[in-house]
Structures are given as structure tokens and as C-alpha cells.
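> forwarded from #structure-qc
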């Protein structure tokens, strides 16, 4: 069976006050074209369909358009679960009616975990849909007092699946969470923590060992495509970059082929966005030089770091005349190389000239050499001020 695994669409996302819906429509249209070319047996979307529980109207309309194209025009079934950004009840509304059209949505968590059976030439493939739910919800739904965190919650849900499954068949889990083995996972700033403990650096992870024996586990939540402790357990990642911590990530969808006896092959297929998200760095004059930006996409979403010394007048407006989609800007603060203490540097200040005092101050504050050119400018300014003072 050939499945296309994606996640974290975050339709309706706003990044630095910029609505991403147009970019999302572009990338989702390309996803539909890829589906048409690859013709997988099923599309799996592992949570965070929307960016917030109550999505804007344009986000709902975009999802309706995309799902209609996939289901009605291409005839490809869709399996979809709620993530931690979604409202389970809203996402799952009408799901039983939509099953006949090939759209399988798991919104609110149910004790009888939804099982979707799809068949290929080798027989059935069983998809177990586990939407995101907090440990408190899992504890209540499964009436299990042993559930105290995300790991014990997943352990209980997988235990219930194993009570009823046929281990000889090909079984797939679709879920949304923080699953890991021994290795570190690549994270990004746009991923909302699943709990307070994660937000303050806790270890509220789910052990990848819970998924032993499954042919494939399709994960959502982390935005970088990567495996999670096992080649059979993967994050597909988001389709777009949603923070500047993701600039080095290569966004893709995952094509997973599950053979007759559960043998697995993985291929990552890239989708090119309308606008990339990049960091650029340099002086204001340098970044405005046509030779610098001539061979780049000036429409990209940018974080700009300026390396100029001294005051700049309206740098953002000047930069946006060339780069219209700058989302953030900062000024590089060079590390100061202090070779002596301020106390020793200040010794003998009563016997120093104003120019020498300013030179010491400048070097101490910036860590830069006080050049002869700068000394001439400051000396002229001091002379002018002293002349004006005498005339008063």
C-alpha cells in the first residue's frame, strides 16, 4: 500500500502579523497536483489541520476546496486526525456522514479508537486513528487512573488497540504528539508545547517503543521531517516554514510504501513554496545594492540582521522598498573585547582630554577601534561646542 503522509497544515496561520492563507493555498494546490501524479492509495494528515480552534472563514473555505478536489476529482481517500491546535469537535463534525465519500476524520478521542480498513492487492491495512488529547481527557475516556502524562496516556491507548488487533496484518497508527527514542529531535519555535512541563523544558515525551510491531506510525506535531527513534515512526513535518527557526528545514511530504509482509520504503517529496522564509545579514547599504539581491527572490519572507555601526534612519522602510515581505529586523550587537577593567581604564581621567575620554568610552562600549576618521569628526564636534559655549 502506498500512502502519502503530511501534517501540520496550520491553515489560517498568521506569522508576524502576516496572513499565510494565500501561501497555504499555493502549497496545497501543489499538493493536489502531486497526489494526481503519485496516485497514492490514501492521504494521511496527522493533525493540526487548522492553526486555532476557531479558524477564520477563509481557512474553512480553503480546506473545503482542497478536500473536495482530492476526494471528488482524484478519488483518493483521506485519513485525518485532530492535533493540539485543532478543535476536535469542530473538526469531527459530520465525520460519519463523510465516511461514505472516503473522508475519515477522528476529532474527539473515543474509547473505541477509530479503525479504518483499506485494502490493496495483498489484503487489508488497518489504520488506527488517535487524535491529540491531553492526559486528563485520556484518563477520563479510558477510566484509567494510571494515566498521569502523555507517555502513560499513549501506553493505555495502544494497549486497547492491541487487545483487538490482528498482529499478523499490516497495522498503521496515525497520531499527534511528542514521540521520541534515544536521539534528540529537531524542534522549532512555531510548535506550541503540549503541556506546561514541555513549555518549561520538561520531559513529557512519549516513548517510541509503544509503537513496536506496527508497520508504520504517521506522526504530526514537529515541523521538521524526521524519524522518531525508528525508521517506521516518522514526522512528515509542516508543508511551509512558520518561523525563522525553520529556515534550514527542507519541507516535504512522506511517501510510505508498505509491502505484502510489512516491508517499508520511505521517500520524501519536496514541495516548493510561493515564498521561502530566509535570514539575510549585512549593512543597510550592502543589502540595498542591486548586485546583492539580483539573484535572490526578493518576495521571500525575511528576517534581516543589520551590521551597521551608529544610528540608522528608517531602515525598515528603506529595506521594504526592495524586500516587501520583511517580517522582522534586528541590529547586530558585536561582542565587546574588554582587555582591562573599567576601573583601570578610567585611571587618570582628570588629566585626559575630552577627545581621549570619548575614545575610551567608545572603545569600551562598542569593542571597536576609535579610528582617526572618527577622531576627526568628534574633535570637530567638540571644537564647535566649546566655541558656542564661549560665545554664551
Amino acid at each position: 500500500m502506498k500512502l502519502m503522509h503530511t501534517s501540520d497544515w496550520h491553515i489560517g496561520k498568521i506569522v508576524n502579523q502576516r496572513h499565510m492563507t494565500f501561501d497555504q493555498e499555493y502549497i496545497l494546490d501543489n499538493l493536489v497536483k502531486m497526489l494526481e501524479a503519485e496516485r497514492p492509495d490514501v492521504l494521511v494528515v496527522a493533525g493540526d489541520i487548522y492553526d486555532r480552534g476557531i479558524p477564520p472563514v477563509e481557512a474553512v473555505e480553503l480546506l473545503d476546496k482542497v478536500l473536495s478536489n482530492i476526494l471528488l476529482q482524484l478519488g483518493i481517500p483521506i485519513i485525518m486526525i485532530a492535533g493540539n491546535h485543532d478543535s476536535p469537535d469542530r473538526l469531527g463534525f459530520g465525520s460519519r456522514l463523510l465516511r461514505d465519500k472516503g473522508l475519515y476524520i477522528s476529532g474527539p478521542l473515543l474509547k473505541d479508537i477509530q479503525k479504518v480498513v483499506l485494502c490493496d492487492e495483498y489484503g487489508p491495512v488497518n489504520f488506527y486513528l488517535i487524535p491529540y488529547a491531553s492526559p486528563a481527557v485520556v484518563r477520563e475516556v479510558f477510566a484509567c487512573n494510571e494515566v498521569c502524562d502523555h507517555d502513560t496516556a499513549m501506553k493505555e491507548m495502544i494497549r486497547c488497540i492491541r487487545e483487538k488487533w490482528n498482529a499478523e496484518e499490516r497495522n498503521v497508527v496515525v497520531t499527534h504528539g511528542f514521540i521520541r527514542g534515544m536521539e534528540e529531535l529537531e524542534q522549532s519555535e512555531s510548535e506550541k508545547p503540549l503541556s506546561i512541563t514541555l513549555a518549561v523544558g520538561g520531559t513529557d515525551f512519549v516513548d517510541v517503543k509503544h509503537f513496536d510491531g506496527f508497520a508504520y506510525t504517521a506522526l504530526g506535531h514537529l515541523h521538521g521531517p524526521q524519524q522518531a527513534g525508528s525508521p517506521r515512526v516518522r514526522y512528515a513535518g509542516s508543508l511551509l516554514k512558520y518561523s525563522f527557526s525553520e529556515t534550514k528545514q527542507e519541507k516535504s511530504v512522506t511517501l510510505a510504501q508498505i509491502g505484502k509482509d510489512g516491508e517499508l520504503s520511505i521517500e520524501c517529496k519536496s514541495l516548493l513554496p510561493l515564498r521561502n522564509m530566509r535570514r539575510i545579514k549585512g549593512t543597510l547599504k550592502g543589502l540595498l545594492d542591486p548586485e546583492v539581491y539580483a539573484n535572490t527572490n526578493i518576495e521571500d519572507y525575511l528576517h534581516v540582521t543589520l551590521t551597521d555601526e551608529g544610528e540608522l534612519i528608517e531602515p525598515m522602510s528603506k529595506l521594504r522598498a526592495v524586500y516587501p515581505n520583511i517580517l522582522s529586523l534586528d541590529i547586530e550587537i558585536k561582542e565587546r573585547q574588554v582587555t582591562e577593567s573599567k576601573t583601570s581604564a578610567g585611571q587618570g581621567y582628570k588629566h585626559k582630554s575630552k577627545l581621549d575620554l570619548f575614545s575610551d568610552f567608545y572603545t569600551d562600549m562598542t569593542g571597536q577601534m576609535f579610528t582617526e576618521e572618527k577622531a576627526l569628526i568628534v574633535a570637530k564636534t567638540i571644537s564647535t561646542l566649546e566655541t558656542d559655549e564661549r560665545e554664551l
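QC bot note: The CA atoms of residues 29 and 131 lie 25 Å apart. Residues 277-331 form one domain.
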